[in-house]
């Protein structure tokens, strides 16, 4: 019984550490893309077309990152 209890404790601790690390990574990712959007906001584009261009570049960056992550 002691080994089952210690296994359960180990699994629970591992799961908590994993979930904490996952939340930290998610926060880093969101902070990165928020910074990208903040740059666009700070630019004060002259026209809608320049704003669209910046948004398109950011969307392409996100798409590229997704492709890299899917590959491996």
Written overview of the protein:
By secondary structure, this protein is an all-alpha fold. The chain has one domain. Helix content is 92%, strand content 0%. The protein has helices spanning 2-43, 48-71. Helix 1 (2-43) packs antiparallel against helix 2 (48-71).
Give a quick precis of the structure.
The protein is built from 2 helices and no strands. The chain is mainly alpha-helical. It has one domain (2-71).
Q: How big a fraction of the residues is strand?
A: under 5%
Query: How many E-type strands?
Result: 0
Describe the sheet with the most strands. none
Radius of gyration: 21 Å
Give the CA-based shape.
elongated
Tell me the helix content: over 70%
Mean of residue pLDDT values: 89
Q: DSSP helix count?
A: 2
Order of helices and strands: HH
Structural class: mainly alpha
Tell me the domain tally: 1
Terminal CA distance reads 40 Å
**Are there runs of 5+ residues with pLDDT below 50, and where?**
none
Outline the secondary-structure elements:
Elements: H1 2-43, H2 48-71
Helix pairs in contact: 1-2
Features:
72 residues; mainly alpha; elongated
């Amino acid at each position: 019984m002691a080994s089952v209890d210690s296994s359960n404790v180990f699994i629970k601790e591992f799961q908590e550490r994993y979930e904490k690390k996952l939340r930290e990574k998610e926060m880093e990712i969101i902070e990165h893309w928020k910074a990208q959007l903040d740059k666009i906001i700070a630019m004060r584009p002259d026209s809608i077309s320049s704003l669209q261009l910046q948004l398109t570049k950011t969307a392409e960056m996100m798409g590229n990152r997704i492709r890299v992550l899917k590959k491996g």
